[in-house]
Design a protein that fits this description.
The structure holds 3 protein chains of 3 kinds. By secondary structure, chain A is mostly helical. Chain A has one domain. Helix content of chain A is 72%, strand content 0%. Chain B is mainly alpha-helical. In chain B, helix 5 runs antiparallel to helix 6 and helix 5 packs antiparallel against helix 14. Classes of the chains: A mainly alpha, B mainly alpha, C alpha+beta.
Chain lengths: 306, 398, 141
């Protein structure tokens, strides 16, 4: 019975199929918002679904010189990491499917799995563009992870626990966007870095290195990576909304808060030009870490005083 | 000093012929060390269509339309240069109203070209919003050109001896209204390009070309004007109606990418001023003068200022109704060496920006070039020798 | 130096309708000077053939049936035409004009692209000399 419950939780609800569909839907909302900001129409509602279906039905071409197990297996691992991470976050406004002490750390590692898999997948091939894309992906991973993690751990400190459900119980009463504004800024920018959205899309800069680490992928592998990105977007937005925007108490609040956050994220995407990879690293290690450390000092100082 | 093994570690990145950074095919090999470029070679010729040879099979009138289709963005200026050359050979006096309308369409085309370039350059930088907005505003000038000439691209306004279409008062009103909107938007773009912090990070100090270097490499057009080299054919050797409607040269001294952006946007203001002046003082008269079908023998050349720089046409006639030789030298060919020299030492991410900074037009520049090295003999291969040469070189005896 | 110089554009666009024209559901009126499909009026034609000589694409042919009696037909290849209007200006009698409202010329076969202009008997005689027996006839005059 327990196994059946786990399988259903992982494959259908709350993770699995429903999350995949939601990932595609959020991708559509993001593209439509970006189009609206740029004064144009944007794609119709079924565009990401059509893309995913088309890619899944195409032949997967395995290039020469790669390790075929890695080539075929990495997209599966990336998507699996994303789907598993959804089991521990309060997705859809419902309490997480599984909860234990320290599941925040587990979730963060699972979320980094996607970027890591993309980096290894790019390094796996002989293609110049993929190698440069892989280098950039991994460089970006090392640069935004530190501030992003620290900004996520800020709410954990004030809530006094490493368990997501307890943290959300605390943040439901205290809106941390007002008490930790610097942390909020860092985590929103960090989310954009994690999802490789402009202005941090140097790893997949279309006009420089074609498609970055995913240049050689086609068919099923590419579809799984893109589904993984959609899933990661939903989970990332859920975490930020749950920690900083006063928790997600029920499905309606979940939709309102995550979509509102997506509005802001799409606005930042539209507004800024792409940064070079060295500028991204410089930005993160100088301003990102600085801001979040200042936030931590304020937070710890207030705890000692009060 | 790098050992042989370390040298082999250097990467070669091919950009093109198919690449999202290039709008047209061209092949660049960048040798990179990490993210820094150490060497560049270029190979062109992918868009060669044999236009100069095809021009010898068509009569003088049909060639206007062939020359127009060398390039889509600077089509009118190609046809104008050709017509000016033929009119020189045939000694035809074009009426002043026709010359003014030619210059009017040329300036509207320059507006269109610079707005297009702004969008493409912003797209290469990853700034898609500026791309979308500048192309939205470009639709205004394309609608004006459609209303004036009958087509959005390839305006086909020129005839040998004049122009085809006239300017009515409703069209003049529409142009004034369109220019008002465009001027407001151009002020906004000047503000964006000059002050947006992220954009400046990508363009300031990138691809700096000093004035002496620009003169040495023979750069032309806005690329040279951004390095304070005052070259503008409309000012140095005015043609068509430019003696009556003089132009101010726009110069910048920084010589980097930001300066190239600023030069082109400021030239837009100059275009708006010029178009308004032409519409205010449009000379009355006829639109076309009779030109003979058989052009007298002789040679002529015409130089005009295309949106990208100096465009040069050489025409040779042998007295018949078909030209003997048409030679076109486009501005992009002159600007390529500057890219090759500037790219070394920059990061890979700056390369698309440097490439697009000279406003490359690959379709324009694929003509045949003969390079004379001092001391070497000129080699002329006939068809049979060329075949043998190809078979030997590629190891493929028939 | 400011961050996000296009913020005014981006935020006002959120509340505006997109500027894209939803063709074919919304159609903008074409300008009256648009160079659309060619039309030939045989009334003043003298059969000089300058239009055919000057066409850069070989899209127009004047078939002479009887030059003394001024009987001509005109064969127009829409798919070769570049819509440059050189023929309109080469003709000294003003027989040619480009329609500004016929510009949606896409078709699924070559048949709509072979147009014959002229009086019916002239066209029939002209077409008898050509192998395109299924070509459409477009009466004009």
């Amino acid at each position: 019975m327990e196994i059946l419950r786990s399988v259903i939780a992982l494959l259908i609800f709350p993770s699995g199929l429903l999350l995949l569909v939601a990932g595609l839907a959020y991708e559509w909302v993001d593209r439509k918002l970006l189009a609206q900001y740029q004064n144009r129409i944007g794609p119709r509602w079924f565009q990401p679904f059509a893309d995913a279906l088309k890619l899944l039905s195409k032949e997967e071409v395995i290039p020469e010189g790669v390790n075929p197990f890695l080539f075929v297996g990495l997209p599966i691992v990336a998507l699996a990491g994303g789907l598993t991470a959804a089991l521990y976050v309060p997705i859809w406004g419902l309490p997480p499917a599984y909860s234990f002490t320290g599941d925040l750390i587990v979730t963060l590692y699972l979320l980094s799995l996607l970027a890591l898999c993309m980096g290894v997948a790019g390094a796996n091939t002989m293609d110049r563009f993929s190698l440069i894309g892989a280098t950039r992906t991994l460089t970006q991973l090392f640069s935004y992870e530190a501030p992003f993690l620290l900004a996520l751990l800020g709410p954990a400190i004030v809530a006094g626990s490493w368990q997501i459900s307890e943290i959300t119980a605390y943040t439901r009463e205290h809106w941390l966007i007002f008490t930790q504004p610097l942390g909020f800024i860092v985590i929103v920018i960090g989310l954009m870095g994690k999802l490789e959205l402009p202005p941090f899309d140097a790893p997949e800069a279309e006009t420089e290195i074609v498609a970055g680490a995913l240049t050689e992928y086609s068919g099923r592998g590419l579809a799984l990576f893109r589904l993984g990105k959609g899933v990661e977007m939903v989970i990332g937005l859920t975490l930020v909304a749950a920690f900083y925007l006063g928790g997600v108490a029920n499905p309606l609040w979940f939709l309102v808060k995550t979509l509102g956050l997506l509005l802001v994220v799409a606005g930042i995407q539209a507004l800024l030009a792409r940064l070079r990879i060295d500028q991204t690293v410089g930005l993160w290690w100088r301003y990102g870490v600085l801001l979040v450390l200042v936030q931590w000092i304020i937070m710890i100082g207030m705890r000692i005083v009060l | 000093m790098k050992t042989e093994e370390q040298k082999r570690e250097l990467f070669t990145i091919p950009i093109g012929p198919q690449h999202p950074a290039l709008k047209e095919p061209g092949h660049f090999r960048f040798t990179v060390d990490g993210e820094i470029v150490t060497d560049v070679t270029v190979r062109l010729g992918y868009a060669h269509r044999g236009i100069e040879k095809a021009a010898e099979e068509r009569n003088w009138i049909q060639n206007i339309y062939l020359m127009e289709r060398i390039c889509g963005i600077c089509s009118h200026i190609h046809a104008t240069a050709y017509c000016l050359g033929v009119e020189q050979l045939a000694n035809v006096q074009v009426p002043p109203r026709a010359q003014a309308i030619r210059v009017l369409v040329a300036e509207l085309e320059r507006i269109h070209s610079h707005l297009l370039w702004l969008g493409v350059a912003a797209h290469e930088a990853g700034f898609d919003t500026l791309f979308m907005y500048s192309w939205r505003d470009r639709e205004t000038v394309m609608d004006l050109l459609e209303d004036l000439t009958g087509n959005r691209v390839n305006y086909s306004v020129n005839l040998l001896g004049g122009v085809k279409c006239d300017v009515s008062s409703e069209q003049i009103d529409a142009i004034y209204k369109g220019l008002e909107f465009l001027e407001k938007r151009t002020h906004h773009y000047l503000d964006v390009v000059g002050t947006d912090a992220m954009f400046l990070q990508r363009t300031r100090g990138v691809g700096v070309m000093t004035r002496s270097y620009a003169e040495l490499l023979g750069a032309v057009g806005p690329t040279a004007r951004a390095s304070a080299v005052a070259r503008d054919i409309r000012v140095e050797a005015p043609y068509a109606a430019y003696p009556d409607f003089p132009v101010n040269i726009i110069l910048e001294t920084a010589g980097d990418l930001a300066a190239r952006f600023l030069v082109r946007i400021k030239e837009l203001f100059e275009c708006y001023r010029l178009v308004r002046e032409i519409l205010n003082r449009l000379p009355p008269g006829e639109l076309v003068a009779r030109a003979p079908r058989r052009i007298p023998a002789g040679e002529a050349f015409s130089r005009v200022e295309a949106p990208r720089g100096e465009l040069f046409y050489f025409l040779k006639s042998n007295g018949s109704d078909k030209p003997e030789r048409v030679k076109v030298r486009t501005p992009t060919i002159c600007n390529w060496t500057s890219v090759l020299k500037l790219a070394v030492g920059h990061q890979l991410a700056d390369i698309p920006m440097i490439l697009v900074g000279i406003d490359p037009c690959f379709s324009c520049n694929d003509r045949s070039i003969i390079i004379h090295r001092p001391g070497s003999e000129e080699q002329c291969l006939d068809w049979e020798t060329l075949r043998q040469y190809g078979q030997v070189k590629y190891g493929n005896p028939t | 130096m400011k961050l996000g110089a296009m913020i005014s554009d981006v935020t006002t666009s959120l509340f505006r309708k997109p500027v894209t024209e939803r063709y074919p559901f919304e159609r903008k009126e074409a300008s009256e000077h648009l160079r659309g499909r060619l039309a030939w009026d045989p009334e003043n034609c003298s059969g000089c053939g300058l239009c055919a000589m000057d066409c850069p694409a070989g899209a127009i042919e004047v078939v002479v049936i009887d030059k003394q009696a001024k009987r001509f037909a005109c064969h127009y290849h829409v798919d070769r035409c570049t819509f440059c209007a050189q023929c309109v200006h080469s003709c000294r009698q003003g027989c040619l004009a480009m329609a500004s409202d016929i510009w949606e010329l896409a078709a699924l076969s070559r048949i709509p692209f072979e147009l014959w202009y002229g009086d019916d008997e002239n066209v029939k005689l002209a077409m008898a000399g050509t192998p395109a027996s299924e070509a459409q006839k477009s009466g004009a005059g």
